[in-house]
Amino acid sequence: MTLIQRIILAVLFIIPIIAIGFFLAQGDEEPFFVEQPTSQTGSTTGLPPVSNTDTMPPNHPDPQVQVRAMIKELEQKIAQNQHEFEDILLLGRAYTMVRDYTNAANTYEKALLIEPNSIDVLLPLADVLAVVDEGKLTGRSYDLLEQVLKIDPNVPMALWLMGNAEMQLERPDEAAKYWTQLYYIFPEGSENRMKVSQQLASIGKAPESTNAPATTTIQKTTSEPASSQAIHITLEITPEAQAKLKGTTVFIYAKSQTGMPMPIAAKKFPGEQLTSSITLTEADELMPNRKLKDIPQTKVGIKISKQSDVDNKAELFRTEQALPDSRKVNLVVQF
């Protein structure tokens, strides 16, 4: 199996797509990512950890190009009925990686007919259906997540998404039950446990033992000076663009120039709150194992979309620029 195939099978299974798209129910500016246990019930991947591709050399083939080529190969293989179950999973996740969420959902539906109790199918299907439904986890996604937790009640991503689903249904007490269970799954002192604690605190349900540390952590984060890894971004917004910002969603992000296309750090703003000076720091990093300090070649960008667009259909503007050694970049916004 190639590196890009391992990335698709493993990475897209452990990261909720709606988190990648910054579409958790609360509109959280710092998406939450949870890793799956390596030996969970119902898992069919059983893959070793994926190596970090953020440090791939510049001449490494573009992962997106590789994925699209693989999609054609898998489509042909499945059409000729020369495939295995894993090929269907791989195709679903490949569609997801290129943001073809409708085909991804259809592919997972076919996989579900073959393996109706596979967490490898139920979980990504629930996730991608939520993306298609503009981030809503309250429809069929909810039922699929319930099924996952009946098979294995300790699947971190399912617990996290179910908590978000309950918040969408305005049932914070139910959300707290899922998130509290998730809290105790993670090791004491881990970054994931801290994030869950903060989420519980935000709805007034923090575990008693973590009330004081959670408050201390939040205060420390807001009072610390900018680190050497901070990225300073200035925006030149034309009057025409400024007039169009109301009702839009703005994403400011930093990502690897040569590795995985997902952002390393990001912030999300309503268009009308966009300012001319923004700083990305370690506090804006999206995953514990992907750090700004570890990326030798970084690209900074801004994307402006209508509302909270989860794909590129309503994209109004995007521009990116390589980050110089000064870690200061100027982006011109005009559309």
From TrEMBL:
<feature type="domain" description="Cytochrome c-type biogenesis protein H TPR">
    <location>
        <begin position="69"/>
        <end position="191"/>
    </location>
</feature>
<feature type="region of interest" description="Disordered">
    <location>
        <begin position="204"/>
        <end position="225"/>
    </location>
</feature>
<feature type="transmembrane region" description="Helical">
    <location>
        <begin position="7"/>
        <end position="25"/>
    </location>
</feature>
<feature type="compositionally biased region" description="Polar residues">
    <location>
        <begin position="36"/>
        <end position="56"/>
    </location>
</feature>
<dbReference type="InterPro" id="IPR056412">
    <property type="entry name" value="Ig_CycH"/>
</dbReference>
<dbReference type="Pfam" id="PF23892">
    <property type="entry name" value="Ig_CycH"/>
</dbReference>
<dbReference type="InterPro" id="IPR019734">
    <property type="entry name" value="TPR_rpt"/>
</dbReference>
<dbReference type="InterPro" id="IPR056413">
    <property type="entry name" value="TPR_CcmH_CycH"/>
</dbReference>
<dbReference type="GO" id="GO:0017004">
    <property type="term" value="P:cytochrome complex assembly"/>
</dbReference>
<protein>
    <submittedName>
        <fullName>Uncharacterized protein</fullName>
    </submittedName>
</protein>
<feature type="domain" description="Cytochrome c-type biogenesis protein H Ig-like">
    <location>
        <begin position="231"/>
        <end position="322"/>
    </location>
</feature>
<keyword id="KW-0472">Membrane</keyword>
<dbReference type="InterPro" id="IPR011990">
    <property type="entry name" value="TPR-like_helical_dom_sf"/>
</dbReference>
<dbReference type="Pfam" id="PF23914">
    <property type="entry name" value="TPR_CcmH_CycH"/>
</dbReference>
<keyword id="KW-0812">Transmembrane</keyword>
<keyword id="KW-1133">Transmembrane helix</keyword>
<feature type="region of interest" description="Disordered">
    <location>
        <begin position="35"/>
        <end position="62"/>
    </location>
</feature>
<feature type="coiled-coil region">
    <location>
        <begin position="64"/>
        <end position="91"/>
    </location>
</feature>
<keyword id="KW-0201">Cytochrome c-type biogenesis</keyword>
<keyword id="KW-0175">Coiled coil</keyword>
<feature type="compositionally biased region" description="Polar residues">
    <location>
        <begin position="208"/>
        <end position="225"/>
    </location>
</feature>
<dbReference type="InterPro" id="IPR051263">
    <property type="entry name" value="C-type_cytochrome_biogenesis"/>
</dbReference>
<keyword id="KW-0677">Repeat</keyword>
